[in-house]
Please model this.
Amino acid sequence: MKLNFEKNNFGHIPLLKKLWLDCFEEKSQAVDLFFERCMDFTSIYTARVEHKPVAMLFLVRSTLNGKKAHYLCSAATQGEYRHLGIMSRLIEYALEDSHKNGDAYSLLFPASEKLYSYYERLGYQPLCTARKKVFTREELKRIAQNNQSNLPLVNSYNYEELQRLCLKDNFLFQNNNFISFASDYYSLYDCKTVKSDNCFAIFEEENSTAEVFYSLYTDFSRLAEKILKKTTAKQFVFTGKSDDELYENSLIEKYGMIKSLDNNEKIPENTYIGITLS
Model:
């Protein structure tokens, strides 16, 4: 079997959409949205047998502490070509190419716990972290009532500025277009978004619990106020950057993986990936 590796063969997109839907439990509208909105800042890597792509992955270009980096996502191999080492070779090809183009770090979020060991064999380390904080509705109401922020307003649609203000360092910095896409992407799965001055959040609800899996805010009380207006949930679980004061005294959890592509670049401690794709 002769394998060929390619970058950005946009003629394969219809076949890649089919491969994506065959491998992941995704809505076709969500896959279409990714290809419509993310190609300007995403590189496509494929492994091809003859004229047919049999494996794929995507590198969403971003930065980490001012260094070029990427988020590796949606790695998939067609069923009959699995367990042949194709994905490992494709990842190696993609990382070599991205390193040549100046990337210092590669980050990813394994789709399952068992995949952590697979990516460790490829040189990734489970050094990305996050913390969780649980609030009752009554606790969040009390916080929201203290909203007397005199902070200068930041347009919530400028997600880049919000990231810099809220997360400061050791986080995967994404551009406005990716976060805007992610908001629309998750809305297809019935997630709710808060977009208001000085805050932004995406959350999903189940059994009276709101899981706030991504948020940016300069004042948590303002965010609490906006979220409460969007849901009747009785409990709220926030996930965020491990050095955020909000999560003080909560446990640090493994939250993704990182690999240095340059021996001169030390991996930052407790790197926060932030928003990911499901």
User: Anything to note?
Assistant: The chain has two domains: 3-125, 129-253. Residues 69 and 200 are 23 Å apart (CA to CA). The chain has a mean pLDDT of 94.
